[in-house]
Amino acid sequence: MYLRTDENGTLGDYVGQAKSPARYDARQSEHSDDYPNADFNFDTIDRAIPGDELRYMEEWNMRQLGGSQTLNPNTPLSNESRAMSDENFNSFMFDVPQIPTSFGGAYQPGPLGGKH
Known about the structure:
globular
């Protein structure tokens, strides 16, 4: 999972995913090709297993930052579409095991959370 930011401030932030390090490199080039006047930074914000978990974590991270444009027309993100429907998101969320943490709480997905 990555967060793309534009140093020029002309494009909103973008939450994206890549299934492998090679795909992550390719995505950075694709973003640059699509927006040649942008000055992008890419930061890894989370990790997940490709498939439903990756889509879930992408959707979770988007929602934490305002949601996609289809979910929230006033979002600061430039993500046009969602990674997961509400039904699939909620279903997956309740299937995540509640793993105790060292501080006594339960596991919650978040930055660099999830299964690695």
